Amino acid sequence: MGQGQAQGQQSQHWKKIWVGSAGNMVEWFDWFVYASFATYFAGSFFPEGNDTAKLMNTAGIFAVGFFMRPVGGWLLGRVGDRRGRKAALTLTVSLMSASAVLIAVAPTYAVAGYGGVAVLLVARLLQGLSVGGEYAASATYLTEASAPGRRGFASSFQYVSMTAGQILGLGIQIILQRTLTSGELHSWGWRIPFVVGALGAAVIFYLRRNMLETDAYEEEAGEESDAQASERGTIRALLRHKREAFLVIALTMGGTVAYYTYTTYLTKYLSNSAGLPKQTATLVSFCALIVFACLQPLAGALSDRIGRRPLLITFAVGSTFLTVPIMTMLRQAGSFWPALGLSLLALVVVTGYTSINACVKAELFPTGVRSLGVALPYAIANALFGGTAEYVALWFKKSGLESGFYWYVAGCAAVSLVVYLTMRETRDIDLKRVGGTPDGRLDADKVPAS
Predict the structure, then answer these.
(1) What Pfam families does the record point to (predicted)?
(2) What is the DSSP string of 185-246?
(3) How sure is the predictor about 220, in pLDDT bands with cuts at 50, 70 and 90?
(4) Domains present along the chain, CATH in parentheses
């Protein structure tokens, strides 16, 4: 291979990573601004009452979006396996754009009573459908689009882009906090980020319409028979890989709870429990997430050298034993710097999971069922654990047992630790051969499983 050809292939790899990541950023911007702006719009959709109760109501709708994710995982995972990763990624961003528009124009309680809640609920259901497919489609796309020895590095950009979406949301929040009064933010300013999200999604739709399909997908699609093609992306094909599907759920459990605790819930925890001003809490999250995003490629590249399991085990051990002291000290953090230091410590631990979880899951399944295999089990785990993390945290707080949530997070990490200790290494798996024979049956010598 000549130097020019090698450079051309490298350029194509980066183009695929860029387009996949940019779309992922907008998707997760729309998903996360709901959580980060909930403290401002909670009062707009519900009658007067306890502030924590209002947050629980909006957190409940936030959790409902997660319960649509398994549906989106199945539907869009099937599209990704049958029609291509490009088709699935284009569809997810279309759904997200529609949901952002709905939230931006949703009527308040004063205007339409609980009609505004109904619009909010429909929007969150659409977002759940979209994100349920987006995670797997982007994880599969980024993993397949990368060079074999660089999958950990390339797929880490999924969480770089996810975190960049949240950083963008928090950045807009900081700007609005400094340019609008509190009354303006609570009245109408909270709608601005959803308008921005809708416009961004429209731009990404155009980019994804022109993106390149992955070589792994095109090669297998071109070689398979009609009978094999009909099995692509079906539940029947996924059931041949039940062990891998359960492995995805188990290894996701601890990671998703910890991630949502230290990202989407952190700002509310710092303001609602630690007593920091909203502006300070937002700035803490913003700065911590910038460092967190920068850590992802470094950890992903490290996994390409030493393997995936060491990073996963490090995360699980750290989360199991450090969550309770970190959360306890965060509650006592009375200013910016102590809160930032503790938040960074927590996110460094979580990096062991976030930087490589996309490629680990994609490496478990063959091409014909990879998108669905990642999407559905991951979405189920997120519906059960990630989507409910904030609601569980607020329930413990309202019950006067807030420290119980810290132990809940640590317990979920401990369960995942058992899985990480017993699973096989996936770093050197050949994506075009993983899963076994051409008819889709499992080959025990090639399947990385617990």
Answers:
(1) MFS_1
(2) HHHTGGGHHHHHHHHHHHHHHHHHHTPPPPHHHHHHHHH--HHHHHHTT-HHHHHTTHHHHH
(3) confident
(4) 13-215+232-422 (1.20.1250.20)
